[in-house]
Amino acid sequence: MEDTKKRSPFAVLWAWAEGFHGGFYAAVVLAVLGVVCNMATYFCIAAMIRLLLDGGGLEACLPWCAAMLAGYAGTALFSTWSTAISHTATYYTLRELRKALLAKLSRVPMGTILDTPSGQYKTTIVDRVEGMEPTLAHLIPEMTSNALVPIAIAVYIFVLDWRMGFASLLTTVVGLVVASQSGKTYAVRWQGAVDIGRRMANAIVEYVGGIQVVKAFSQSAGSYKKYSGAVQDNAQYYVDWMADNQKYMATMQSVTPAVLLPILPVGLLLWNAGSLSAAHFLTIIVLSLGLTGPLLAAMSFVDELAVVGTNVEEIAEVLDAPELVRPEKEATLQGTGIQLERVRFTYGNAEEEILHGIDLDIEPGTVTALVGPSGSGKSTIAKLIAGFWDVTGGAITLGGVDIRQLPLEQLNQQIAYVSQDNYLFDRSVRDNIRMGRLDASDAEVETVARAAGCDAFIRALEHGYDTICGGGGGHLSGGEKQRISIARAMLKDAPIVILDEATASIDPENEAMIQRAISALTKGKTLIVIAHRLSTIADADNIVVVENGRIVGQGRQDALLAHCPLYAQMWQAYLDTRDQG
């Protein structure tokens, strides 16, 4: 995506609609034709007035009446046609824009997505994109065409009498001046509305996600302050904004249509003085009545003009986000050995470095355990190996190739990653497991489920493997979700498996069974484990002890107990906890 900061919001929006420009051009042309037909009715009325004043009869007016009917029919036909075409082009544009946003998310660092509240992405992809609909479907054809009506009528009035032309524009000018006072702060106000709406969306997502905790502590939506406060702030913001804005808009909507207030006295004075004919006077009165309707219709899109910048900016922020730059051509790997060489890492724009020169060799087919206090950096190491972020210093190689030189698809094929909070989709249990390998048969799904210790509880569900998991797996317990996630990873059959505290939600009895299943299913594979229970990694080929972003010890358990004080302390704490239990 191009850098949108140097381009106007409308230029950016128009570029997004590039594939459908023809439809928008056609919509504008049809809308203009509809306006021409609408204008024709006023000129027909003016012509009939002149005929009647000149002594013409009913028969002379009939052709003009027929022309008026044709004008009404043309207005309806062309306007409907224009609207249909503009909406078709708009919704295809919005479809492509949403597809581009989702495709973009697949190319940005996974860590960026994990660090962004889900409510924010929902607001951008759903609400902000939908907010483009009035601009594209209505503003482009309708505002363009509606602006032509008062311009054409005003020009004709000036041709008839320049003095009456100025009189006809007086209330319009006053109304626009008043409305401009509101428009001065509209963009800023809208940005504030977007920000406060985003906070409310994030608070709602957080509240729904944590509803079990909220209920467990006898709180309600009203007593959960972050949620209730965000909702109250959002409502109050709009109340205050509309209260301030109403005085300007009410004045504008009262003054602008009152076009006859200056026209009638000025016209009477000029007619009485003999410098304005009665035919022209009456014609101008009729034409002036057609000034304000289209003008007010065009002004109704001012809101869209003010908010389009904010909507485009928020969408562009996602589309222009830094990506994980990867080549398209697959590299030749020399095995599945992993090496971390002087790896340093800092999150985003944060100043504090998380990892400080990590050196680590992970041999193919071995079990490597990462242990350490909370916040030590062990999960960050695992996520860097999985390619969730790029290192900010040093390098990580897989099979002798820097993972930054591997296409994302190739890296993903090599690694199966299971975390403590893996997501389940609102689909059947069978489909959730099959996402590990979409071409897997039902028999293969059930085989891996048995190996992962899932089969028994799955068959006990109401519809067995066809039971719907619910949004985020909400119909299942934490342990059940985790076992399904492990089965999904096992079905992928990747040569490298990363378990990031994957058994944290499983009770000790089931954990032992899962550990046996994992051992069997990962035989011959490279296994990287982050575990909170040290007993599960006691037999690991290499236990890596991480503290404050540095490796302070590594080796087998016996050696660490003898030479790594931190590991010895952690092991003793584990034994004490076990004995107390």
Secondary-structure-derived class? alpha/beta
Envelope shape: elongated
The number of distinct helices, counting runs of at least 4 residues, comes to 23
- What is the total tally of β strands? 10
Our measurement of the CA-to-CA distance between the termini, rounded to an integer number of angstroms, reads 57 Å
Mean pLDDT, as a whole number?
Answer: 82
Strand order of the largest sheet: 6-7-8-3-9-10
Helical proportion, percent range: 55-70%
Rg estimate, integer Å: 35 Å
The largest sheet, given as strand count, sense and whether it forms a barrel, is: 6 strands, mixed
Q: Low-confidence runs (pLDDT<50, min 5 residues)? A: none
Strand percent estimate = 5-15%
Describe the protein.
Helix 5 (118-130) crosses helix 14 and helix 8 (186-209) runs antiparallel to helix 10. The longest helix has 48 residues, at 58-105. This protein is α/β, with parallel strands linked by helices and 581 residues long. The protein has helices spanning 9-16, 21-53, 58-105, 110-114, 118-130, 133-160, 162-183, 186-209, 211-216, 225-255, 260-272, 278-288, 292-299, 302-319, 378-385, 408-414, 429-434, 442-451, 455-460, 478-492, 508-521, 557-563, 565-580; strands spanning 338-345, 355-362, 367-371, 393-398, 401-402, 415-419, 496-500, 526-530, 542-547, 550-555. The mean pLDDT is 82. The radius of gyration is 35 Å and the shape is elongated. The relative contact order is 0.08. The protein is 61% helix and 10% strand. It starts with 8 loop residues before the first helix and ends with a helix. It has 23 helices and ten strands. The strands form two sheets. A six-stranded mixed β-sheet has the order 6-7-8-3-9-10, sandwiched between helices. A four-stranded antiparallel β-sheet has the order 2-1-4-5, with helices on one face.
